[in-house]
Structures are given as structure tokens and as C-alpha cells.
């Protein structure tokens, strides 16, 4: 098969954790008297929490991060689910011999909390978090790190995500890129960044991989 590695963003792509993230940010903004809506913090999803904290809280960034982590972990299990068909999709790819990985801007503790809670841990061969690289999406470093660990070639790899940061990072890393339409970013905005395809459901991923395989022969 042409594409031998499938890497995924976590929040908004595999995990339906955006309600948890929004709930957590609202709590932090309220507690720190930061106006909600002055800039849409949800548009920053896909960037590390450190960057978000520095932008919205300035010198109080460390307090922002501590409050976020407290509320996030306290409410994690109440708000976190996988998108329908995610585990079945991963199982199907694994049976085809495709290596699987997660590349996320989430910190290591939060990412593993989600992965273990949802059962994703049974399927992934590698996970790269914000703590594993110095430079983050939209730069390609996290994806390059995952490919290095898996000994993968960019032209044999696809990166799947829900934000333009994901598309930019994948393109910069030389992989195929796919955007999912059920996450944080609207379809029209994803199209502006020219991914190799857009997924309306996980069934579309199967079709994309089959087409890539036919074209490779």
C-alpha cells in the first residue's frame, strides 16, 4: 500500500473533547476576569497551552495554566468521548498493516489521560505531545518526530486533523494531509489551506486510502 502510516491529531479529530476544552476555558476566563469573546480562544485550539496562556493572560500565564489543568482533569471523564466509529476505523487500518500514531499539541499528561480513558492506547504505535518537541504545530517538528520514531517516509504518511494548524504542519512535513469536518474548523476554512482531502466521516478515509493505493500501483 502506498500509504503505510496514518498519524492523527487528538482533540477534535479522534476525541470529541472540544466541549471539555471550551468548558474549561470558560471557567478559567471567568475566574481570572478575562473577557470571553474579546478574541475567540477556540480558534487557538491546536496550539500548546503555553502559547494560549501567554497570549490571553500575559504575566499571569502560569496561573492560567494551573487553573486550566485543575478544571480539565477534574471534569475530563464527564465531557470526553470519541467520535463515532473511531475505534473501528483504527482497528480496520491496523488489520491492513498501517502503522498508527497521534501527534498533538496537548501536554503529555492530558494526552495520555484521554488516550487511556477512551481506549485509543490499544491501537497507537507512537504518540508525540507538546512535551516531546521544542517547536509545535503549525511547524512540522511534531510530525517529523513521529515519522522518525516509526522510520516512516513522508510520501508514505498521511496526517489527519481538524484545524488549519494540522494541515500546515502536515504539508510542511511533506505528508499527505486530510482535514476532518467535524472538529473545530469549518470546512470552508480548511479548504483554504488546500489539504489533499476532506473527510465527512471515517468512511471517507477508507476511500482515500484505497484510491491512494490504486494510484500507486
UniProtKB/TrEMBL annotation:
One of its GO terms (molecular function) is phosphoglycolate phosphatase activity. One of its GO terms (biological process) is DNA repair. GO terms for cellular component: cytosol. Pfam families: HAD_2 (PF13419). NCBIfam families: HAD-SF-IA-v1, HAD-SF-IA-v3. This is Pyrophosphatase PpaX.
Amino acid at each position: 500500500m502506498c500509504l503505510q502510516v496514518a498519524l492523527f491529531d487528538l482533540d477534535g479529530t479522534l476525541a470529541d473533547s472540544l466541549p471539555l476544552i471550551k468548558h474549561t476555558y470558560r471557567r478559567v476566563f471567568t475566574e481570572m476576569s478575562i473577557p470571553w469573546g474579546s478574541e475567540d480562544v477556540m480558534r487557538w485550539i491546536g496550539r500548546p497551552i503555553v502559547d494560549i496562556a501567554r497570549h490571553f493572560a500575559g504575566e499571569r500565564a502560569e496561573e492560567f495554566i494551573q487553573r486550566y489543568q485543575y478544571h480539565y482533569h477534574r471534569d475530563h471523564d464527564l465531557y470526553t468521548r470519541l467520535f463515532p466509529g473511531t475505534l473501528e476505523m483504527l482497528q480496520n487500518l491496523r488489520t491492513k498493516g498501517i502503522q498508527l500514531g497521534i501527534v498533538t499539541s496537548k501536554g503529555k499528561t492530558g494526552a495520555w489521560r484521554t488516550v487511556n480513558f477512551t481506549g485509543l492506547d490499544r491501537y497507537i504505535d507512537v504518540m508525540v505531545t507538546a512535551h516531546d518537541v521544542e517547536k509545535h504545530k503549525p511547524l512540522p517538528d511534531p510530525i517529523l518526530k513521529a515519522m522518525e520514531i516509526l522510520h516512516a517516509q513522508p510520501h508514505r504518511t498521511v496526517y489527519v486533523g481538524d484545524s488549519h494548524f494540522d494541515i500546515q504542519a502536515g504539508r510542511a512535513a511533506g505528508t499527505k494531509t486530510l482535514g476532518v469536518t467535524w472538529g473545530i474548523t469549518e470546512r470552508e476554512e480548511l479548504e483554504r489551506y488546500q489539504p489533499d482531502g476532506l473527510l465527512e466521516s471515517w468512511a471517507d478515509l477508507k476511500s482515500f486510502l484505497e484510491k491512494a493505493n490504486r494510484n500507486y500501483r
